């Protein structure tokens, strides 16, 4: 899960109280590794010339939950790919080189210490409604993201830009750190030096749309039918929430020829069903995050675009999330029920007790989860950054039911009632995962309630919007992208606004080492310090390293991977 895609919050700080998600230095190119530590493989480029025509249907990882970029939780697992097809992206991440290249932005350059960035937009781009794709449009969208992105409590906005103004309604921006230089040029002023700043714009915060269309439609209608408000390679034809998003090619796309006539996104529950649909031709491609299905697809010689993950499956634990109850953004947060607007509350969870978190880690054996859920095909390791390019070799917790029972008894003496909830999707993998986790927790003396009545997007909503969980199957969206990882770690653990309730100054300092790391040795040391604190405090229990890929028919070509698990289809084509 996402994640995350994420999906999807606080790292590089804009001038007056605005936070942009950040990540480590990306000046050096890095080899791409899979979750198991080997060279990542992606379907070789064909020597055939692209041809026009055809319809491609893609199986989603989860339902998108709307079309407004401000409603998306993060990356390609939760609507980012669909958004990129309609709106395009400001910047793109080139995985083979680790470099950033322009999308609708022609360039993004920095001053010497990476605290001021200048973005030049490409000339002569227009939104589908005829209004100009200019600096004013970009600034307006980014500031809207800061104020209301992801509809999340505590301004936890879309994995990239967040306002720290959380106690007033409506929130206002006096100085966003974004200034317009001329019609096609913007400047961004950051509080912290960060060479990875361009990563902000490769995901949902790089999805820019027409202010005129948004204001004419209003937020609610825009979320279900943004019409022709984008400047991407495809134009929305129809949207049936939870069923299908259908798009047709944009004949006026600024990037030139779009080869596919039609692009569709549908959700088919479970990776096995998605792969079966690819094999039968119902789908031409699908998002697969399952080691059993992925291994079979490779054995069957299907195409694949890999997005290697780190700690691809974890037990995420709610350490007690502080929420400011205000307006519609927190209307569905149970902790805010009957609470006056502006009041800060902290979710009361079993796992706000550190000993409960440690008990979960001792009780749940990743090997058991691998056998029962992934048929032994996953790479099991409870170390947060195991089998990673910068693996710090910090061992994770060991399964020990005796220790788990001791910790359960200790937590009960501290006032815990012994009850705990386990949230997972209602797909086959999610149900097996919840059963396997619940069985082991029960054996340790916990009273377990399984929450498996929602699909993956529902679990995302439970965690990121309702804040109503103890344990959930999850992933922090850690990839083989250095900048992404700093972004995700700050989004996850920053003490200024901890996404899952866990954060402290010690972890902040460790993560900040990653921001300034400019050598492999420094990166490894940063991950070592992060891992040591993580294993000590156990905000999440790492289960396994899970492959993540767009699997596709051999007749599908030129799907392009960018950052945040998003794939681009503007130049994709289908053999006749």
Any overview of this molecule?
- The chain is α+β, with helices and mostly antiparallel strands and 576 residues long.
- Helices cover 27% and strands 22% of the residues.
- It has a domain at 313-545: Dipeptide-binding Protein, Domain 3 (Dipeptide-binding Protein, domain 3, Roll), CATH 3.10.105.
- It contains 14 helices and 28 strands.
- Helix 8 (366-373) packs antiparallel against helix 10 (428-443), helix 12 packs antiparallel against helix 13 and helix 13 runs antiparallel to helix 14.
- The radius of gyration is 22 Å and the shape is globular.
- The two termini are 35 Å apart.
Characteristic terms for this protein:
28 strands, six-stranded mixed beta sheet, seven-stranded mixed beta sheet, 576 residues, Dipeptide-binding Protein, domain 3, 27% helix, alpha+beta
């Amino acid at each position: 899960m996402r994640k995350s895609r994420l999906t999807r919050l606080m790292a590089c700080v804009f001038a007056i109280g605005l936070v942009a998600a950040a990540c480590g230095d990306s000046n050096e190119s890095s080899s791409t590794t899979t979750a198991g530590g080997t060279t990542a493989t992606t379907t070789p480029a064909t020597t055939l010339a692209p041809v026009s025509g055809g319809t491609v249907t893609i199986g989603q990882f989860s339902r998108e939950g709307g079309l407004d970029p401000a409603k998306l939780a993060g990356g390609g697992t939760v609507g980012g790919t669909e958004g990129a097809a309609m709106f395009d992206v400001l910047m793109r991440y080139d995985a083979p080189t680790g470099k950033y290249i322009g999308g609708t932005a022609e360039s993004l350059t920095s001053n010497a210490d990476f605290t001021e960035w200048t973005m030049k937009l490409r000339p002569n781009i227009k939104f589908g409604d005829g209004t100009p794709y200019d600096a004013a449009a970009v600034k307006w969208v980014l500031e809207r993201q800061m104020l209301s992105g992801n509809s999340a409590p505590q301004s936890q906005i879309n994995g990239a830009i967040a306002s720290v103004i959380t106690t007033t309604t409506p929130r206002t921006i006096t100085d966003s750190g974004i200034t317009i230089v001329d019609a096609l040029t913007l400047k961004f002023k950051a509080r912290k030096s960060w060479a990875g700043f361009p990563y902000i714009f490769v995901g949902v915060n790089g999805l820019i749309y027409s202010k005129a269309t948004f204001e004419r439609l209003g937020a609610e209608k825009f979320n279900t039918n943004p019409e022709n408000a984008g400047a991407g390679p495809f134009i929305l034809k129809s949207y049936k929430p939870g069923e299908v998003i259908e798009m047709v090619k944009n004949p006026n796309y600024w990037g030139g020829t779009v080869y596919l006539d039609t692009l569709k996104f549908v959700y088919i529950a479970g990776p096995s069903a998605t792969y079966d649909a690819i094999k039968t031709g119902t789908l031409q491609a699908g998002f697969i995050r399952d080691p059993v299905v992925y291994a079979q697809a490779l054995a069957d010689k299907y195409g694949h675009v890999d997005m290697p993950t780190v700690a691809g499956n974890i037990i995420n634990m709610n350490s007690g999330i502080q929420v400011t109850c205000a307006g519609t953004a927190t209307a569905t947060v149970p902790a805010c029920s009957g609470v006056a607007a502006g009041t800060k509350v902290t979710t009361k969870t079993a796992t706000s007790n550190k000993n409960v978190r440690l008990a979960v880690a001792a009780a749940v054996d990743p090997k058991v989860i691998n056998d029962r859920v992934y048929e032994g095909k996953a790479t099991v390791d409870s170390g947060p950054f195991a089998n990673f390019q910068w693996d710090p070799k910090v061992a994770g917790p060991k399964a020990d039911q005796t220790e788990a029972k001791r910790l359960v008894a200790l937590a009960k003496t501290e006032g815990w009632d012994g009850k705990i909830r386990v949230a997972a999707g209602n797909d086959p993998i999610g149900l097996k995962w919840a059963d396997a986790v619940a069985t082991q927790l029960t054996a340790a003396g916990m009273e377990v309630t399984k929450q498996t009545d929602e699909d993956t997007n529902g679990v995302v909503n439970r965690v990121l919007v309702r804040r109503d969980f103890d344990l959930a199957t999850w992933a922090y969206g850690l990839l083989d992208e250095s900048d992404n990882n700093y972004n995700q770690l700050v989004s996850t653990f920053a003490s200024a606004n901890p996404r899952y309730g866990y954060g402290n100054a010690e972890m902040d300092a460790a993560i900040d080492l990653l921001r300034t790391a400019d050598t492999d040795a420094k990166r490894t040391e940063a991950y070592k310090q992060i891992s040591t604190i993580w294993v000590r405090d156990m905000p999440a229990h790492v289960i396994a390293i899970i492959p993540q890929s767009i699997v596709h028919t051999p007749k599908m070509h030129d799907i392009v991977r960018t950052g945040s698990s998003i794939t681009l289809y503007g130049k994709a084509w289908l053999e006749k």
